[in-house]
Amino acid sequence: MSESVLVRCPVCRREHLYTAPRYPCVCGAPVAAPLDRLGEPSVVTHRTWADDWITVRCGTCEREDEWPHPELGCACGTILRVPVDGVRRQPSPAPAEDPGEGPGRGRKPSRAAFQPLAIRSARDAVTVTALYLRWLGYHDIRRADQRQPNGIGLAARGILAQVDPTVQPASLRDVECLWLTAMSESAGCVYFSLAGYADDARAVADRLGVPLFVLDLTGEPQPVNSLADELAAGRT
């Protein structure tokens, strides 16, 4: 069971009993960030990848992975970053794959079922995508070096993922830009959209070999094309 700590908002002085969320490790065991009972929460005023993610060790298999930093929304509107004992890590660039390697190369098959996380914000959409990529077998996930026209890019060894949390369906140009960026880095690519895809975007994705997923609000990525079906099944 996840531990709970008392968190006091430094703005309005309200007290909250906070329980750390648990996420599934690739071994199937639940992982929760170790909370610091003596630390003071900090107010989130702006976001960076280094602040939003921490390194946590799985107590079952001893694997270390990056997980979302615990946060709490106070009734006064303040977002609090809950103190933890985990070691913070700056992500380093992933080495490039050899040309011709697709998005399924160099990764281990996932064993446990994916555990969804409800999506209520753009940050949740990015978190779900990062967790899903880890479930697929990709690790050392970081922010992509190159920015795309819409959304947020994530990268791991051999893969670029685009997360589009906007209310507009992803366009043909969005899919093509992701594919071109991936080609320039000799990596595979995959697109995650909250609002789905335009018809011509789906057609070009099939032609270029880009798996497409829709992020539903339950946090379960849904394959849109056969390429996404194959990626989710581990057949790529």
Quick structural gist:
The protein is α+β, with helices and mostly antiparallel strands and 236 residues long. The protein folds into 2 domains: 1-90, no CATH class; 92-236, Trna Endonuclease, Chain: A, domain 1 (3-Layer(aba) Sandwich).
Question: How are the secondary structure elements laid out?
Answer:
Layout: E1 4-8, E2 15-19, E3 22-24, E4 30-32, E5 42-43, H1 49-52, E6 53-57, E7 64-68, E8 71-73, E9 79-81, H2 122-136, E10 142-143, E11 152-156, E12 159-164, H3 172-184, E13 188-193, H4 199-208, E14 212-215, E15 221-223, H5 226-232
Parallel strand pairs: 12-13, 13-14
Antiparallel strand pairs: 1-2, 3-4, 5-9, 6-7, 8-9, 10-11, 11-12, 14-15
Region (Disordered): 87-110
Protein name: Restriction endonuclease type IV Mrr domain-containing protein
Walk me through this protein's architecture.
This protein is α+β, with helices and mostly antiparallel strands. The chain has helices at 49-52, 122-136, 172-184, 199-208, 226-232, and strands at 4-8, 15-19, 22-24, 30-32, 42-43, 53-57, 64-68, 71-73, 79-81, 142-143, 152-156, 159-164, 188-193, 212-215, 221-223. A hairpin with a 5-residue loop joins strand 3 and strand 4 (30-32). This is Restriction endonuclease type IV Mrr domain-containing protein.
- Give the DSSP E fraction (strand runs of 2 or more residues): 25-35%
Strand order of the largest sheet: 10-11-12-13-14-15
Quote the CATH topology of the largest domain: Trna Endonuclease, Chain: A, domain 1
| Shape type | globular
Structural class estimated from helices and strands: alpha+beta
CATH class bucket of the largest domain: Alpha Beta
Order of helices and strands: EEEEEHEEEEHEEEHEHEEH
Head-to-tail CA distance between termini? 36 Å
Protein name: Restriction endonuclease type IV Mrr domain-containing protein
Region (Disordered): 87-110
